[in-house]
Every structure is written in C-alpha cells, then in structure tokens.
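2024-03-11 09:14:02 DEBUG pipeline.ingest accepted 1 chain
2024-03-11 09:14:02 DEBUG pipeline.ingest length=155
2024-03-11 09:14:03 DEBUG pipeline.predict start
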Amino acid sequence: AFDIREYATDEPFQIGDLTIRAHPVGHYVPAWSMVIAGPDGERVVYAGDMGPSDAVVELARGAELLILEATLDSNRYDDVRRGHLTAEEAVDHVIRARVPCGILVHYPYERLAAIRAICAPTKGLVQPAVPGTTIDVAAGEAPTVTLPALPEGRP
C-alpha cells in the first residue's frame, strides 16, 4: 500500500530511519529540494531541477553531501525564471556551501567529459555521478564516493 500526501515546507516526514524536510526551489513548475537526515546526524541535501539558489547553499551548510543537477551547457538557453543549473553554477553552489562533497546529476551523458573538466579544479570536491555510483555517508566525515569503471569508448 502507498501513503501519498503533499508535503509542506520544512515539515519533517519519515521514511524508515530518515527524516526528510522539503524546501521549494526555483523551477518552471513547483519543485523541491530535500534535506535528508540520517539516524546518526548525517545530512544529505538533494536539489534537482532548480535555478541558482542562495537558499539551497544555506540549507546545505553543515551537510556531508550536496547533490545538484547540472543540466545546462549554458544559461543563455534557460527561461528567465531559471529552472536549471550549469555545471559551473552547481560547482559554485557546492563551494559556497562548504560541504565536504558535491555530486552532479541530471546532465546529458554526452557532456560527461566536459563536466569532469569543469569539476577537475575542485580536486575531487565535486564529481559528476554516473550510473552505478555509490556514496557512503557518515556524520562528520567526507562521504566515500565510488565511481564504476565505464565501458570502453565512454568518457
């Protein structure tokens, strides 16, 4: 059975031993970031489908992991309301949030090599996820990110 309900801003709800709080983000339609707290105090902030947001930077402060989308090659093609981030903007959010780890998702796979190059100056602080990526998160520690080997010929 499913228990489907609408969530309210910053009102906690539980899934197993995780406590989740939703916060609205700028997008073309309603969209939410999620602050996910584990039983030992570990925190992950996930924000997909969003434009640049100082609020998400603030939400992520003190978290172990910030997961952001990096959909756009350039912001010149986005709506004036800004509903997506470039990889450069996502990296900037991670750096300003001062989290020990940032992961980029929701990007065209053909851009993987370019996004890796954009992340390279962060020396591993920010990395693009690929299918099969695993991340172990523990309170007060930098997450352990394991990226799978990609098939030959993939970036």
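2024-03-11 09:14:41 DEBUG pipeline.report The radius of gyration is 16 Å.
2024-03-11 09:14:41 DEBUG pipeline.predict end
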